[in-house]
Amino acid sequence: MKKLLLALILVATILALGACARTPTPVSPTPTTVSPTATSITWKEPTILTGRLGTADDLAVTPEEIAAAKAHLGDSFVGIIPCTMATEYHFTVADAARKALEGFGLKVQLVDPETKPEKEITAIENFVAAGAKAIVIGVLDPKVIESALKEAAAKGIFIVQYAGRESAYNGISISIEDADLGYAAGEYAGKLIKEEMGGKAIVAILDYPDLPNVVIRANNIEKALLEQVPQATIVGRYLGGTQENGLKSMETALQAHPDINVVVSINDAGAYGALQALEAAGKDPQKTIIVGIDAEKMALDLIKQGGMYRGTVDTQPARTGEMAAQGVVKLLAGGTVPRDIKVPVKVITRADLQ
Amino acid sequence: MHLTRKQIFNFLSENGFIVIFLLWCVFLSFFTPAFLTVSNLMIVLRQASIVGIVAIGEALIVLSGSGMDVSLASILGLSGVLVASSMVDWGMSPWVAGCIGLVMGGAVGLFNGLLVTRMRISGIVVTLGMMYVLEGAAFLYTKGQTIFGPAMQYLAPLSRGYLGPIPVPVLLLFLFYAVAYYILNYTVFGAHIYAIGNNERASWLAGLNVDRLRLMGYVVAGLLAGFGGVMQTARMGSATGGMGSEFLFPILTAVILGGVSLGGGRGKIERVLIAAVFLTTINNGLILLDVSIYVQKIISGVILILALSLDWLRMAIH
């Protein structure tokens, strides 16, 4: 009987949440003047707006919202599950989110799934069991973790997804579109080929097929590059993602295609390896182009030096983490927030750094 | 000379993965002209060098009957981070930085060994725990950032240098294997390692200090993993907290494919070297053949299954 009652409550909650998502209420331009003390706050479900892409401005939080979020969280915590802590991008997102949440006075727990979707499932289940009220997550494989996240959402836990949009059940997504990232990198590489190589180049793309989201980047690199320079030859997609993979792949690819003169990578780490391989092969830095994604410090340094590394697409990881934290506050405070929020893409070139 | 079916069967089963390796090389040399070139073969050996060197330590531990050590890749990672940081952040010379990596590796190996031999905790449990500790330490230290700087160029000769026509990492690979081969086949220490792996109790009754020998195995393996970290940092010209994680499976696969018995006491170190080179050749060949990145994993898996299946025949016969 108790189980039946519980199931009915759960179904009612899901229906109520669904109804909220379908009936957006307009965003109030001015914050309400509720006293920021925990005792005086009456919690209400957040209003999640659909139908338009939100911006960073939609996530500005007021002291009242922070107080309301703290009151609603109580002794519970916010869970953070980045894709991995091994790359600068995900580490920075997770670290920025953690710092921002702690800055708001919210408790945080962080788990590293080490790029393994099954470990993300375990982390979600553990957070649910431990009573988390919100989860910030970088989704590795949306289909694999779908049921675990839906289960968490059904228990009222807010999901704030970064680097993707599919999995923000009962919550919001804060993301640079992987397609935008790939497109920006491919487009910039294409422009350089057009301006400096007369539109002809032998191109290698560094991919990472283990992660579906990243494959979207590679697809769009190829698409944008060929749109810019249809005469360019793409000799293949090779395993990148890490410096070691990028190095190994390009060392070997250069044996089969010694005339490769452009490498576009789905991230900076793989591009570092490509740079080493191209340098070791004696390529002329003035006639070779590397473009990466992520805007890591090392990439910025290499671009500034003026060699082959010509550009990187800034994913703004710290900003993404802070926005995720603000999103958590909005949801916990019962605020109004768009379901999908965009982090802007920016190609960083030598000109930007000088 | 006429070979009987049984002789062919025995030959195939005895030589296991080496037969598949040779067939793969013959196939590649026919279908991709870039494979059988000096520069490509040197690339293969250079790519195999770090896994190969650290796999010596893994093989030593497995041969001594201590089970598998899954922390060596993490030792490699932390060593690389410490070496890079010593040079970039603290301005140390590459020699001092290298020594820090080695000492850390040896110390972790000693600690692992003491836990296994003194506290009688299972080797796999100790090293599994240590793997997480070291990975966490590496991430904590780097805070997810890549350590790099102009100072890293002083370490480059270890990766990019040549001695005559031979790259330094390749030379080191063969040097380490020559030493390991000599120690395991021609010294008392090597004989004792095989003995304690074969029959721990009989060895103890014969007066061998089983614990000390196993402890030495862990220390040597830690030192080799530490050195692997120095080499990898030199190869990448930078270091990240996760740099060791890519090595865990290749190291273990090299030892298992090389036919080192997981129960200890049986296995030949030269076969581990061949296995390490074989693993590298699989990916090298698939890239040269322009096989789609999405199909590469499938073919790699099929080749490995074939190689291990033939080795299984050998084990079934004996």
Overview of this structure, please?
The complex is a heterodimer of chains A (354) and B (318). With 354 residues, chain A is α/β, with parallel strands linked by helices. Chain A folds into two domains: 2-23 and 38-175 and 318-346, 3-Layer(aba) Sandwich (Rossmann fold); 178-314, Response regulator (Rossmann fold, 3-Layer(aba) Sandwich). In chain A, 47% of the residues lie in helices and 19% in strands. Chain A contains twelve helices and 13 strands. Chain A has helices at 2-22, 63-73, 88-103, 117-130, 142-154, 178-197, 212-228, 243-256, 268-280, 297-305, 317-332, 350-353; strands at 47-54, 78-81, 108-110, 134-138, 158-162, 171-175, 202-207, 233-239, 262-265, 289-293, 309-314, 336-342, 346-349. Chain A has a seven-stranded parallel sheet, sandwiched between helices. In chain A, strand 2 (78-81), helix 3 and strand 3 (108-110) form a beta-alpha-beta unit. In chain A, helix 4 (117-130) runs parallel beside helix 5 (142-154) and helix 8 crosses helix 9. Chain A is elongated and about 65 Å long. Mean pLDDT of chain A is 87; it is low at 1-39. Chain B is an all-alpha fold and 318 residues long. Chain B has one domain (37-317): ABC transporter involved in vitamin B12 uptake, BtuC (Orthogonal Bundle), CATH 1.10.3470. Chain B is built from 13 helices and two strands, in the order H-H-H-H-H-H-E-E-H-H-H-H-H-H-H. Chain B has helices at residues 5-31, 38-63, 72-88, 94-117, 123-142, 157-160, 168-186, 188-198, 200-205, 210-236, 248-257, 269-288, 293-317; strands spanning 162-163, 166-167. In chain B, strands 1-2 form a two-stranded antiparallel sheet. In chain B, strand 1 and strand 2 form a beta hairpin. In chain B, helix 3 runs parallel beside helix 5 (123-142) and helix 4 packs antiparallel against helix 5 (123-142). In chain B, 51% of the residues are buried. The mean pLDDT of chain B is 91. The chains are: A alpha/beta (354), B mainly alpha (318). Chain A binds chain B through residues 84-88, 90-92, 95, 112, 114, 207, 209, 235-239, 242-245, 247-249, 251-253, 255-256, 269, 272-273, 276, 280, 296-298, 301, and chain B through 32, 34-35, 37, 39-40, 43, 47, 139, 143-146, 148, 160, 232, 235-238, 240-243, 245-246, 283-284, 287-288, 290, 292-294, 296.
